[in-house]
């Protein structure tokens, strides 16, 4: 039987089985979860090539095949999915309705696999809807408090889906086919109005999932309020479906080369998403919220990379997408572990868990270094390629905006590590233990993976280049295991960099550890140089509230957007894009409709004149 | 190579560096603090001897007790001294650290500093002139070079005795243990 | 020297309150003594009606022989340029005085000090008890009956004096092998 | 092959030593010059070496956990690591080290590595001063990195390379230093350098009167000593980077010393006569003129 | 687990604190939401000790009340004793006393330059100004024998006459300092960064200043023309020609400008004194200290120091020792309750800066 179908079946069968097994025995359920999670991994990596699978149902031709680009995302789905499932066993222990949870989990994994393998628009849309609904059910899994968040999410997703459906219907009427490929071929021949409309509708549909700038409203809340075990997949992988779709639309439809300004708008939207989400991320007090905003920011880079659309920037975009899947999954797992062990995710309350949860800290640190793009870990590779490609393709102001958000990302990166793991130790958290083994394994797995991909990005770049050369229409995209080369022909050897970093670090670390070992002593954080005053129990020496107050003051104009948005009226919103987005938190459905309409109008206004150049 | 000799050479180098690099903790415990700026600044310029300020006890070598210590300050001074890292030196500055000076009958100041902290060198006068301060520092440097400035060691060895004296004055003793 | 401003003020005060005594000490200074009950009205009066906005000082004298504390309030007027010393006596045992925190904000600090140093209570006054002293267990130290010398003997060490009565200067010089210049010798004993 | 490795090792050691010694003397000289401006004699120029030996010779070292213990090692990675990728002298005149990989954007990030590691170490101390100092430092970094990156982007656009050695080569080929070829980029980078060197008015991280030396307030002995040496190396790294990027590198060590020291004097002397900014003022400063110059530099590089 | 503000202790061991005191800050971000000062680290129980000392012994203690500016303390003690005893002071002694007071003001101003700039991170000015202060201390040393503690102004006059040629040396130092003032202007007052830091920080407006009993430069910086030297002239201030500078800004910058103007006034005052200095006796002989008694009575004497109004309440019970000496330090209000109020809403970076501009001086608070 076709291995693609088997994978799909495993996921869907897993969904049903686990729901059934939950009724009988928790152990059986867990076993099924692990098996159904890990089997696709084994299957996926053991099979060198997937055959296509075609059948006809209800008058529609369905055609399933794993494209080369989809292959990368599918790898992400199975790996992160399996890790999240393993993680979930420990994390979800003791919660109710677990069968329901796992069912939806498997459904969304299966639907993602389905999306990636769909070569026709019908099954693509169906799987897309399954994905949306299964993720919605998990978003509202945590009780009625999340209902409103879920509503926002499902509202946006539904709008996106309808936009997509409209586009699919339009394609069908235009081409008479429901195959992606036919659409890609026919697109060039369509009238520019159709081209424009279909692209906008698709970008709208995918942009919702990819949390693109004006459509990101749902993301922060939904990511932070679903169970962390799922959020690892939700933010790490599910959002990448949007990226996958965007990549298809932007590149396959040749939007980049044919509609320069259109792609510029998307690229700038991505950059602005990154910048604004970053500065909002660093004022969050909840680690889940912080990570959620950070996800939005990272997706901004990815969208920019894809929208700019040169070979290198596309490669950077996809590479960052994969890497983001890995490190964000790791970080959400860390957040989950902290939530589980310490009982809170509020950085105003958490403190100094480093000595309690050292392995979790290492995971967090490695993932954060990858996120911040600091060499020698993988994030650096993606950032480097993104900058080089942006500079190389003369997007010099875009690169400044991206760089601003990436520098500001250090702030929330540090905030994350400090807020959870560092600072003054407190009696309250004396009982906290290291996360259970089943949670640690996936986390440490990602740690190793991130370290490896930092030095050998070729592991990811290879398939990406393969996808670009075969199927995405790029020609002659080169890649090497651990050498990066930019458009000017300058290259850097990552293995050399990693070696230097590691060797220098080890030398000085040994020096610091061994020198005067006898006189080196650990003292508690209660014994600090407190201006001579004895440390008093009633005082709190942990610095947590309003961590980046100076930054907020310095960036007051940017933050003021948000403030005025709360109180601003709708007429302000028409003037200012950003002011308007704030209204969306009002929970008023009508506003959303206006807002979505406005977005479409703006896109039309922007692109209509330019697309017809 | 003779191990003892090499140790000796290392000690000489160490002591030479220690002697010429004295980080004085910025703690004005008493009125003598007024002459410290004068000592540090342009006319007397203590920095030419390698004497400079340090902001926190972790970084400092020298604890300069600039004058009388009220009991309230003594508690902080002990705390600060114990946070400093070996080798560390204490300079008693002004007559009032030696025998109480003009505060001999004050109910709130301690009279004999060396009962509470191991003083390496005293500078007398009320208040000592900057020249005297510098001379005191040079005296300390001589002690360090000779390897005799071992107040910290003395403190560690006789901790119980010092503690008893300190606790006699400081009623509410809540401080971390001292073990280095 | 013209003292009519001072005279006028004293007359005003005498007209409104029953002063136990009142005198013009010198220019810029008048001294009045009132009963305890009159203190707050008088202070309020001089502040609000006469413009004595600045409280310069509150002092206290312990007349242990007569068994009373004498509190002296000293408001000053920037316009009139007169400082009124308002004296009031309160009994020494269970000393208590009205709180004037709300009349002058800075009285807060003074009252904290008086409470700590003399043990005078100010009912209704909010402020930390520890101000200058820390963990003080004895009687308030500024009271006359607190014997500081005995306390010192009790709590602190004493360095014995030298018996030999040698001259310090010459001894130091001898020790460090330094020559005392001739002109300095006459200052040595 | 074996010889290559030994040569590489030798190069690493010699370069690091050169950077360390030069940096230490520069720091000593800065103290001396500051002292002269302040009407003082000042410490001997080798004073920093004595301080360093003293700090390393401290008998005890107190730490609040292994992150603080390793904090200085992160700093060292950043300092020594960046040094490896920067050509000290012009091509062929000094050890090549790893200058073939000396990509400027990579360096930007590597230079941050140490600060972040150090910040983690400072965070673990649990001292509020440290944490506030770190937030200040990171906030300031967001400020000065923008003009600095703009200057770098302008250079990349102008010379069509991101390799430092290549930029150096390109300057030689054209015969014009880039500080003259694109003066705006130089000005933007120089103004950013004020923040990077953390002399007054941008010494807000460890401001003693405000935060009691900020992130390092819990570090003494060997930690402080290692930090001090890494600062020395790092000062050299930054100076050489500036000289390479904007002043056409150097042909011999004397020229290098003249150029780098000349450059070093600019933030130093500016710092001597200015009080420090508040954090937000510092960031606003960088987003004022320096950023404007950066934008002009980019436009100049594009349209030139 | 409620959200707690961060506690940051500023002092007693802190490079930014003035003297030996403590400010406990509660922080939200780096903004202060609550400040609590604690003093008492320097409590020596002077007022208790003085009850055990006779009238002349007391005189030696007086200067130790406030270290940065000891002479006004000696002066008010001398004047308080004179007021109770009715002792006359020779005219020349009054001139010399005034000169000493003004010299003390000058050196204190220079110390304030150091503190204000040191807390802002401009380390060159402290180095210069404390260096220049030494020239004034040299004059003191020549006149009194001590650099910091002079024990010079005693009841009935001053202890010693001026040495030969002292006036010319004073004038020389005045010329030098006046010249240096230009350097300070360039470094500090013309510095845009210093202005940016100082403007709009630590505002104490007029209503608040009067309500809280603010004195000295902070009061004048919000437009109140108040100076003890004019309001209640002592020594020979009524014979001298000087103005009381005021500003309207009420912030650190305004206080700095006020002090700068006062600095210039002090130089001019000293020049006037030397110009007008009469010849004659310098003290009225005091009786044998052991038998020296004062009539029963009290006196409250005030003087204007750099930090503001200082006062001394002296109560004599007719014996040879004071019944009660109570000193009102200028910083008594500034450094305790007012500071707690002013710091709220400010930034951590400005705490030390504001404290210096208010002229907090712990030794005179707790005595």
Characteristic terms for this protein:
heteropentamer; A: mainly alpha; 2 domains; 5 strands; disordered C terminus; B: 180 residues; alpha/beta; Rossmann fold; 3-stranded parallel β-sheet; 7 helices
What can you see in these coordinates?
The complex is a heteropentamer of chains A (613), B (180), C (189), D (304) and E (367). Chain B is built from 7 helices and 5 strands, in the order αβαββαβαβααα. Chain B is an alpha/beta fold and 180 residues long. The two termini of chain B are 32 Å apart. The mean pLDDT of chain B is 84. By secondary structure, chain C is an alpha+beta fold. Chain C has a 5-stranded mixed sheet, with helices on one face. In chain C, a hairpin with a 4-residue loop joins β3 (54-63) and β4 (68-76). In chain E, a hairpin with a 2-residue loop joins β4 and β5 (157-158). Chain E is globular and about 65 Å long. Chains in contact: A-B, A-D, A-E, B-C, B-D, B-E, C-E, D-E. At the A-D interface, α15, α16, α17, β4 and α20 of A face β1, α3, α4, α5 and α10 of D. β5 of chain A pairs parallel with β1 (61-63) of chain D.
Number of helices of chain A: 25
Low-confidence stretches of chain A: 563-580, 608-613
Structural class of chain C: alpha+beta
Q: Secondary-structure element sequence of chain C?
A: HEEHEEEHHHH
Helix content of chain C: 25-40%
**Overall strand count of chain A:** 5
Name the CATH superfamily assignment of chain C. Answer: NADH:ubiquinone oxidoreductase Nqo5 subunit
Please give the radius of gyration of chain A in angstroms: 24 Å
Distance between the termini of chain C: 52 Å
Q: Roughly what is the average pLDDT of chain C, rounded to an integer?
A: 81
- Going across the major beta sheet of chain A, what is the strand order? 1-2
CATH architecture assignment name of chain C: 2-Layer Sandwich
Helix content of chain A: over 70%
How is the biggest beta sheet of chain A arranged?
2 strands, antiparallel
CATH topology of chain C: Beta Polymerase, domain 2
Shape of chain A: globular
Strand runs of chain C, count: 5
Main beta-sheet annotation of chain C = 5 strands, mixed
Order of helices and strands of chain A: HHEEHHHHHHHHHHHHHHHHHEEHEHHHHH
Give the secondary structure arrangement, pairings included:
The complex is a heteropentamer of chains A (about 625), B (about 180), C (about 190), D (about 300) and E (about 375).
Chain A: H1 3-24, H2 26-46, E1 53-57, E2 60-64, H3 68-91, H4 98-117, H5 121-139, H6 147-175, H7 180-187, H8 192-209, H9 217-225, H10 228-252, H11 255-258, H12 260-281, H13 287-308, H14 311-342, H15 358-372, H16 378-392, H17 396-421, H18 437-455, H19 458-469, E3 483-485, E4 491-493, H20 494-514, E5 520-522, H21 549-554, H22 556-567, H23 570-575, H24 577-583, H25 589-611
Antiparallel strand pairs in A: 1-2, 3-4
Helix pairs in contact in A: 1-2, 1-4, 2-3, 3-4, 3-10, 3-14, 3-18, 3-19, 4-5, 4-10, 5-6, 6-8, 6-9, 8-10, 8-25, 9-13, 10-13, 10-14, 12-13, 12-17, 12-25, 13-14, 13-17, 14-15, 14-16, 14-18, 14-19, 15-17, 15-18, 16-17, 16-18, 22-24
Chain B: H1 3-20, E1 22-25, H2 35-40, E2 51-54, E3 62-66, H3 71-83, E4 89-93, H4 95-99, E5 121-123, H5 130-145, H6 151-157, H7 159-169
Helix pairs in contact in B: 1-5
Chain C: H1 4-16, E1 19-26, E2 29-34, H2 36-48, E3 54-63, E4 68-76, E5 83-91, H3 107-118, H4 148-155, H5 168-176, H6 182-185
């Amino acid at each position: 039987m076709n291995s693609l179908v088997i994978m799909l079946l495993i996921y869907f069968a897993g969904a049903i089985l686990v729901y059934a097994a939950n009724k009988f025995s928790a152990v059986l359920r867990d076993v099924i979860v692990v098996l159904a999670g890990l089997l696709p991994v084994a299957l996926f990596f053991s099979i060198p090539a997937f055959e296509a699978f075609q059948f006809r149902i209800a008058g529609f031709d369905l055609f399933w095949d794993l494209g080369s680009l989809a292959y990368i995302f599918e790898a992400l789905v199975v790996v992160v999915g399996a890790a999240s499932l393993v993680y979930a066993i420990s994390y979800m222990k003791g919660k109710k309705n677990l069968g329901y949870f796992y069912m939806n989990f498997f459904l969304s994994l299966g639907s993602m696999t389905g999306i990636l393998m769909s070569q026709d628009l019908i099954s693509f849309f169906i799987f897309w809807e399954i994905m949306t609904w299964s993720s919605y059910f998990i978003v509202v899994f945590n009780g009625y408090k999340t209902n409103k968040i879920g509503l926002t999410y499902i509202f946006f997703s539904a709008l996106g889906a309808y936009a997509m459906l409209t586009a699919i219907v339009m394609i069908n009427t235009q081409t008479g086919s429901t195959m992606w490929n036919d659409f890609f071929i026919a697109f060039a021949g369509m009238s520019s109005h159709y081209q424009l409309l279909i692209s906008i509708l698709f970008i709208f549909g995918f942009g919702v999932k990819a949390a693109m700038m004006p459509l990101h409203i749902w993301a922060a809340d939904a990511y932070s309020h679903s169970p962390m075990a799922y959020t690892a997949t939700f933010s790490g992988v599910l959002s990448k479906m949007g990226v996958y779709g965007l990549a298809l639309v932007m590149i396959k439809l040749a939007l980049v080369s044919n509609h320069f300004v259109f792609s510029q708008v998307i690229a700038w939207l991505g950059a602005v998403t990154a910048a604004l989400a970053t500065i909002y991320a660093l004022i969050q007090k909840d680690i889940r919220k912080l990570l959620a905003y950070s996800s939005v920011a990272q997706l901004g880079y990815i969208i920019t990379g894809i929208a700019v659309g040169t070979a290198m920037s596309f490669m950077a975009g996809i590479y960052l997408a994969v890497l983001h899947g890995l490190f964000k999954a790791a970080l959400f797992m860390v957040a989950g572990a902290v939530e589980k062990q310490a009982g809170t995710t509020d950085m105003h309350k958490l403190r100094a868990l480093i000595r309690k949860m050292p392995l979790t800290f290492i995971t967090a640190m490695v993932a954060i270094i990858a996120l911040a793009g600091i060499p020698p870990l993988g994030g650096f590779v993606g950032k480097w390629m993104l900058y080089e490609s942006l500079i190389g393709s003369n997007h010099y102001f875009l690169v400044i905006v991206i760089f601003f958000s990436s520098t500001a990302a250090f702030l929330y990166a540090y905030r994350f590590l400090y807020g959870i793991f560092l600072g003054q130790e407190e009696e309250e958290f004396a009982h906290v233990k290291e996360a259970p083994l089943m949670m640690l394994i996936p986390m440490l797995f990602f740690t190793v993976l991130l370290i490896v991909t930092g030095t050998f990005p070729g592991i990811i770049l290879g398939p990406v280049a393969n996808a670009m050369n075969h199927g995405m229409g790029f020609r002659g995209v080169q890649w090497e295991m651990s050498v990066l080369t930019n458009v000017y022909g300058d290259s850097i050897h990552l293995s050399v960099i990693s070696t230097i970093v590691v060797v220098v670090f080890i030398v000085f670390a040994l020096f610091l550890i061994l020198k005067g070992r006898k006189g080196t002593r650990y003292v508690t954080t209660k014994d600090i140089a407190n201006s001579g005053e004895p440390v008093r129990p009633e005082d709190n020496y942990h610095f947590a509230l309003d961590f980046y107050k100076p930054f907020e003051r310095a960036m007051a104009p940017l933050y003021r957007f948000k403030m005025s948005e709360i109180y601003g009226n709708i007429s302000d919103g028409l003037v200012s894009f950003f002011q308007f987005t704030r209204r969306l938190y009002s929970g008023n459905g009508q506003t959303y409709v206006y807002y979505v309409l406005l977005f479409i109008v703006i896109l039309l206004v922007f692109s209509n004149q330019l697309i017809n150049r | 190579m003779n191990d003892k000799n090499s140790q000796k050479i290392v000690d000489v180098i160490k002591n030479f560096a220690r002697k010429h690099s004295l980080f004085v903790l910025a703690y004005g415990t008493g009125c003598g603090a007024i002459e410290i700026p004068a000592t540090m600044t342009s006319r007397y310029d203590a920095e030419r001897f390698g004497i400079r300020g340090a902001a926190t006890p972790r970084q400092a070598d020298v604890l300069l007790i600039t004058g009388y210590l009220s009991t309230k300050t003594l508690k902080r001074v002990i705390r600060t001294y114990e946070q400093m890292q070996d080798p560390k030196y204490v300079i008693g500055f002004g007559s009032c650290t030696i025998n109480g000076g003009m505060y001999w009958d004050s109910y709130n100041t301690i009279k004999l500093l060396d009962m509470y902290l191991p003083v390496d060198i005293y500078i007398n006068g009320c208040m000592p002139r900057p020249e005297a301060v510098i001379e005191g520092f040079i005296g300390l440097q001589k002690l360090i070079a000779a390897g005799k400035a071992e107040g910290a060691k003395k403190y560690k060895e006789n901790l119980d005795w010092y503690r008893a004296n300190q606790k006699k004055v400081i009623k509410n003793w809540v401080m971390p243990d001292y073990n280095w | 020297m013209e003292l009519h401003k001072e005279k006028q003020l004293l007359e005003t005060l005498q007209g409104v309150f029953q002063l136990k005594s009142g005198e013009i000490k010198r220019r810029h200074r008048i001294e009045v003594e009132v009963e305890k009950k009159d203190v707050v009205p008088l202070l309020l009066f001089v502040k609000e009606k006469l413009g004595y906005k600045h409280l310069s000082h509150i002092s206290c004298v312990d007349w242990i022989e007569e068994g009373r504390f004498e509190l002296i309030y000293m408001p000053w007027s920037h316009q009139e340029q007169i400082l009124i010393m308002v004296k009031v006596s309160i009994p020494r045992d269970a000393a208590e005085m009205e709180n004037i925190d709300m009349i002058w904000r800075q009285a807060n600090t003074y009252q904290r000090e008086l409470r700590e140093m003399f043990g005078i209570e100010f009912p209704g006054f909010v402020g930390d008890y520890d101000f200058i002293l820390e963990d003080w267990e004895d009687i308030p130290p500024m009271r006359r009956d607190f014997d500081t010398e005995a306390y010192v003997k009790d709590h602190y060490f004493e360095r014995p004096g030298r018996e030999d009565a040698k001259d310090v200067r010459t001894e130091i010089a001898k020790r460090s092998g330094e020559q005392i210049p001739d002109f300095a010798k006459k200052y040595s004993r | 092959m074996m010889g290559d490795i030994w040569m590489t090792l030798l190069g690493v050691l010699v370069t690091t030593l050169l950077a360390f010694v030069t940096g230490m003397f520069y720091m000593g000289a800065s103290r001396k010059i500051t002292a002269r401006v302040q009407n003082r004699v000042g410490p001997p120029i080798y004073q920093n070496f004595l301080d360093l030996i003293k700090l390393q010779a401290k008998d005890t070292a107190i730490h609040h956990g292994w992150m603080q213990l390793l904090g200085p090692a992160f700093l060292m990675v950043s300092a020594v690591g960046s040094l490896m990728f920067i050509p000290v002298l012009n091509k062929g005149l000094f050890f090549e080290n790893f200058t073939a990989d000396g990509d400027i954007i990579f360096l930007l990030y590597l230079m941050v590595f140490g600060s972040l590691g150090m910040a983690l170490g400072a965070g673990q101390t649990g001292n509020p001063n440290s944490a506030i100092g770190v937030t200040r430092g990171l906030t300031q970094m967001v400020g000065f990195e923008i003009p600095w990156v703009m200057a770098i982007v302008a250079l990349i656009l102008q010379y069509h390379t991101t390799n430092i050695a290549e930029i150096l080569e390109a300057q030689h080929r054209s015969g014009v230093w880039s500080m003259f070829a694109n003066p705006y980029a130089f000005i933007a980078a120089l103004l950013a350098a004020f923040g990077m060197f953390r002399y007054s008015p941008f010494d807000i991280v460890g401001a003693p009167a405000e935060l009691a030396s900020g992130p390092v307030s819990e570090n003494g002995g060997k930690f402080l000593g290692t930090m001090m040496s890494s600062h020395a190396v790092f000062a050299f790294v930054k100076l050489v980077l500036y000289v390479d990027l904007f002043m056409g590198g150097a042909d011999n060590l004397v020229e290098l010393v003249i150029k780098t020291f000349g450059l070093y004097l600019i933030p130093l002397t500016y710092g001597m006569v200015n009080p420090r900014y508040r954090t937000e003022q510092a960031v606003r400063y960088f987003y004022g003129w320096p950023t404007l110059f950066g934008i002009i530099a980019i436009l100049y590089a594009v349209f030139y | 687990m409620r959200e707690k503000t961060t506690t940051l202790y500023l002092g007693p061991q802190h490079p930014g604190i003035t003297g030996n005191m403590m400010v406990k800050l509660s922080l939200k971000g780096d903004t202060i939401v609550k400040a609590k000062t604690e003093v008492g680290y320097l409590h020596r129980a002077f007022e208790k000790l003085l009850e055990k000392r006779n009238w002349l012994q007391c005189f030696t203690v007086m200067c130790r009340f406030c270290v940065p500016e000891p002479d006004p303390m000696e002066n008010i003690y001398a004047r308080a004793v004179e007021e109770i005893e009715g002792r006359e002071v020779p005219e020349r002694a009054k001139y010399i006393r005034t000169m000493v007071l003004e010299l003390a003001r000058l050196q204190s101003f220079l110390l304030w330059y150091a503190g204000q700039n040191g807390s802002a991170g401009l380390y060159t000015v402290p180095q210069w100004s404390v260096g220049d202060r030494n020239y004034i201390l040299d004059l003191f040393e020549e006149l009194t024998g001590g650099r910091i503690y002079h024990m010079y102004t005693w009841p009935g006059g001053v202890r010693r006459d001026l040495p030969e040629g002292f006036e010319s040396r004073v004038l020389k130092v005045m010329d030098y300092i006046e010249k240096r003032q230009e350097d300070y202007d360039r470094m500090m007052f013309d510095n845009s960064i210093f202005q940016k830091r100082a403007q709009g920080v630590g505002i104490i407006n007029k209503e608040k200043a009067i309500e809280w009993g603010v004195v000295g430069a902070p009061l004048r910086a919000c437009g109140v023309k108040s100076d003890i030297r004019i309001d209640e002239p002592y020594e020979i201030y009524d014979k001298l020609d000087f103005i009381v500078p005021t500003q309207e800004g009420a912030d650190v910058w305004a206080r700095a400008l006020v002090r700068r103007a006062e600095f210039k006034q002090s130089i001019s005052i000293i020049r006037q004194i030397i110009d007008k200095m009469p010849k004659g006796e310098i003290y009225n002989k005091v009786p044998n200290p052991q038998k020296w008694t004062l009539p029963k009575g009290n006196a409250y004497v005030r003087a204007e120091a750099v930090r503001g109004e200082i006062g001394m309440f002296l109560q004599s019970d007719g014996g040879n020792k004071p019944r009660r000496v109570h000193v009102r330090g200028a910083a008594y209000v500034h450094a305790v309750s007012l500071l707690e109020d002013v710091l709220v809403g400010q930034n951590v970076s400005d705490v030390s800066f504001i404290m210096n501009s208010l002229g907090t001086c712990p030794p005179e608070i707790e005595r």
